[in-house]
Write a structure and sequence with these properties.
Largest sheet: 7 strands, mixed
Structural class: alpha/beta
Number of domains: 2
Mean pLDDT: 97
Shape: globular
Strand content: 15-25%
Distance between the termini: 54 Å
Low-confidence stretches: none
CATH class of the largest domain: Alpha Beta
Protein name: homocysteine desulfhydrase
Family: Belongs to the trans-sulfuration enzymes family.
Number of strands: 12
GO molecular function, one term: methionine gamma-lyase activity
Keywords: Pyridoxal phosphate, Transferase
CATH superfamily of the largest domain: Type I PLP-dependent aspartate aminotransferase-like (Major domain)
CATH architecture of the largest domain: 3-Layer(aba) Sandwich
CATH topology of the largest domain: Aspartate Aminotransferase, domain 2
Bound molecules: pyridoxal-5'-phosphate
Order of helices and strands: HHEHEHEEHEHEEHHHEHEHEEHHEH
Helix content: 25-40%
Pfam families: Cys_Met_Meta_PP
Strand order of the largest sheet: 1-7-6-5-4-2-3
């Protein structure tokens, strides 16, 4: 089954012939009075609606197990809670800000060390110590869209007995399937493309490993950061259009990238593979598309504020993946927790703008960008 069909048809045959699944709101479920057993017992541990969503999440990824959480951060925290006292996790310095905060402020209290490295692509055997139990990867990176070779990281990490956890939020299983490349855990902020309408906070974890799956089920039950039934249902419905939305968003993004590259008043345009031929080759070998997030800088002669004020369609807001285009300034809006030196080092200038392209008609988005660029000329 192809992914667009799986998104629509993984769940079937509901009571009364309904073509969409029911929502089960019960917090508690009756048990058999003799055996004291039941399919479900209490909503936090498992419930029918979340279970249906988790079936879809696993199916889209071709994974054995799927888990739904109340946010992307709850999903990431659950994945990292598989680490024990004394363990170390390697992460890219440019990792998502919330993940940085969790690793920097919360994990040390649990005896787990996070080591941030500038370039995961340059990782070698020397970077691993006996304590290194996991490597956390984001490819493409945010907002530079730099690419990391997943097969290479998997090979290195596994040789040293470390897990590979991939945050696949920017690609989704539509464009990249890290488990098939050997990764152990995939986390996603479902708030972004999976939900896709900027109206739902959720997270997902998928894995093929039964032991890791047991640890994630424990994280759901013991830490409780699970997705509620109504939100699980809404995500099931949103996922039905994920491949369709992303296809349109990506086509729009490709057009915008080509257009902005033609303009002399735009300085640089970053899009997966744009940093080097080598990164382009790696990305093409591990993903089937380049997604719908790009970043760019205006030429120095242009006024950024006037450009942003003149833009009609993209909302000036953090987040990404929604049907509506969003634009933000990473230095002040998403990567403000990094020091200015760390940002400069990661290639995130004060002027860089990140655009998450929506499903609007590309002609309107291009005309809007053009008129805003004209308005920004000093
Ligand atoms: C948004 C985001 C997260 C966190 O997800 P929430 O749903 O906001 O908790 C994690 N990783 C990436 C790459 C993100 O963009």
């Amino acid at each position: 089954m192809h992914i667009q069909t799986a998104a629509v048809h993984t769940l079937r045959d509901f009571e009364h012939g309904a073509v969409v699944p029911p929502v089960h709101l019960a917090s508690t479920f009756e048990l058999d009075r003799a055996s004291e057993e039941g399919e479900y017992a209490y909503q936090r541990g498992a419930n029918p609606t979340r279970a249906q969503l988790e079936t879809v999440l696993a199916a889209l990824e071709g994974a054995a197990h799927g888990f739904a959480f109340a946010s992307g951060m709850a999903a990431t925290a659950a994945a990292l809670s598989t680490l024990q006292v004394g363990d170390e996790v390697l992460l890219p310095a440019s990792v998502y800000g919330g993940t940085y905060r969790f690793v920097d402020l919360v994990l040390p209290g649990r005896g787990v060390t996070g080591r941030f490295v500038d370039d995961l692509g340059a990782l070698t055997d020397e970077d691993f110590t006996p304590a290194t139990r996991a490597v956390f990867v984001e490819t493409p990176a945010n907002p530079t869209l730099r690419i990391t070779d997943l097969r290479r990281i998997v090979e290195l990490a596994h040789r040293h007995g470390a897990l590979v956890i991939v945050d696949n939020t920017f690609m989704t299983p539509v464009l990249q399937r890290p488990l098939e490349l050997g990764a152990d855990l995939v986390v996603q902020s479902a708030t972004k493309y999976l939900a896709g309408h900027s109206d739902l906070l959720a997270g997902a974890v998928t894995t093929d490993d039964d032991e890791l799956a047991a640890a994630l089920a424990l994280a759901q039950k013991a830490q409780g950061g699970v997705l509620a039934p109504q939100d699980s249902f809404r995500l099931i419905q949103s996922l039905k259009t994920l491949p369709l939305r992303l296809e349109r968003q990506q086509a729009n993004a490709e057009e915008i990238v080509a257009h902005l590259r033609e303009r002399e008043d735009v300085r640089q345009v970053w899009y997966p593979g744009s940093h080097s031929a080598e990164e382009a080759r790696i990305h093409a070998s591990q993903a089937t598309g380049r997604g719908a997030v790009l970043s760019f800088e205006l030429a120095p002669a242009l006024d950024r504020t006037r450009f942003l004020q003149a833009l009609r369609y993209p909302a000036y807001a953090v987040s990404l993946g929604g049907v509506e285009s969003l634009i933000c300034r990473p230095a002040t809006m998403t990567h403000e927790a990094m020091t200015p030196e760390a940002r400069a080092h990661a290639g995130i200038s004060e002027e860089l703008l990140r655009l998450s392209v929506g499903i609007e008609d590309a002609r309107d988005l291009l005309a809007d960008l053009d008129q805003a660029l004209e308005a920004a000329a000093r």
